[in-house]
Amino acid sequence: MIDDTKNTDAIAINEVQLILAEKRTSLAVMRTGIAVLALPLSVMSVLIATSKYYDVLHVLHFLVPLGVLNLVLIFFGVYLIIRSIIRMKHYDRFIHEIKRKHSILGEFIE
To answer: In the 8-state DSSP scheme, what is residue 54?
Structure first.
């Protein structure tokens, strides 16, 4: 009986470790989304800073595809950030459920 309880507790701790590893992966995805989101902002700031050196109408054929690419990058960055936040909340619910089922984990997890 005691051996079975230790086995169950060990499995619960391993489950929490696995979920925390998945949560770290979601945090890495969020960090990537933030980096992807920052790229269009830096490109636009360079274009604004150098705008006195070119005429917008003469380089419009370059600016339109660049603007479309920037919009795609912004949407992709926002998608990655929102997806990672949703996944992290999902993992938090899993951890809470495991903590509720196994009282030994309540001491270690807030």
So the answer is: S
Q: Is 84 exposed, middle or buried (0-12, 13-18, 19+ CB in 10 A)?
A: buried
pLDDT tier, 3 (very low <50, low <70, confident <90, very high otherwise): low
Q: The whole model's pTM is what?
A: 0.83
Tokens of 109: 């997890």
What distances in angstroms separate CA 26 from CA 32, 38, 42, 72, 74, one per listed residue? 10, 18, 25, 21, 19
- Number of Cβ within 10 Å of residue 94's Cβ equals 17
| Identity of the residue numbered 28 | A
Place of tokens 């990655």: 80
Phi and psi (nearest 5°) for 59?
A: -115, 20
Provide the pLDDT for residue 2: 56
